Amino acid sequence: MEKLLPRFLEYVSIDTQSDPYSKTTPSTEKQWNLAKKLVMELHQIGMQDVSIDENAYIMATLPSNIDKKVPIIGFISHIDTTPDFTGKNIKPQIVENYDGKDIVLNKAKDIVLSPDYFEDLLQYEGQTLITTDGTTLLGADDKAGIAEIITAMEYLTQRPEIKHGEIRIAFTPDEEIGRGAHKFDVEKFGAAWAYTMDGSQVGELEFENFNAASAKIKIGGKSVHPGYAKNKMVNAIGIANEFLSFMPSREVPEKTSDREGFFHVHKIKGEIEKADIELIIRDHDENHFEARKELLKDITYKLNKKYGDYVALHIDDQYRNMREKVEPVFHIVEIAREAMESLGIEPIIKPIRGGTDGSQLSFMGLPCPNIFAGGHNFHGKYEYVPLESMEKAVQVIVKICELTAIQIK
After folding, report:
1. Active-site choice (166, 175, 251, 391)
2. CA distance 97 to 127
3. Is 11 exposed, middle or buried (0-12, 13-18, 19+ CB in 10 A)?
4. 80 is catalytic
5. Quick check: is 176 catalytic?
6. pLDDT value at residue 318
């Protein structure tokens, strides 16, 4: 475990933000900087069949050390960080023996990580926290997962007395922009199932996620001098406002939880002759999900009927709820649950209010529940991860490998 912290700190020092507007894979050249380093490190710790393809997908093997045949299992994390908040020049702060009080992230800018607002902090009193300096995200999503997987593999290579079958690992680009599994070669990976190490607090074990889609609404207009505009001007900004007014005001991220779905408008810009709205659609229930898409189509139809054909809607499905693919092989969730319980970790089984590579991979033939990596407050300056949580994630990986070899006949 002594290598876990410096390994993680080295990874987060490398900027790997992805770019949703790029057409390449990976979406940013800088993701190659970490990818190439990881390939070297996998060779150094003794992994076999280490490969990296033209799209920066990394795979490697820890060979079986037992005689009997057991399923090949895998562990997966992603190398990119979100484009929502800067990941450049990350300067982590180490808070040892956390005292349960406010943590000043940046005194000059008065940025404070406080348990008064982030109550989860109180779970980690007495532990070592890694935080930001208040000007960047941290990158524990998902560099904590990468550090945990590599540390677990190194641990197993050095302890042949721990029996396990063949273990496959993979690191993917562009998960944060919904493309992490798009070019993943499931057949090459060759595992019967896998686990993404991409969850949050200790104990999280997830096998269902949102159904997800993105929507772009492009609105045209007609500009006329406002003094003579009656019955002539068509104001695209006004139509955009009207479009949003038809959407349910309480079905937004800040007013929903658990399995409640939402619409999330994350970008809007406009002028008289042109306005654009970008939003995402999320729901765990497939019927509700489809109804949300139909609502957007219905609003578009009504506004076009009222104003003429000024509104164009384009919807892209992104990923689906992996529960459908995991439930038929639910023993893979039970193995993870038993691994946690045997280590004194209480499993927290709940739906993901987001997405993960595992959802797409599950529909590609690789059932893939999600396990905690330990971080909190992802995608922003208040992100932090307890070192002890990362250590527990390493232990869970090792235990899953061990239990699979023992239990599967």
Report:
1. 175
2. 5
3. buried
4. yes
5. no
6. 85
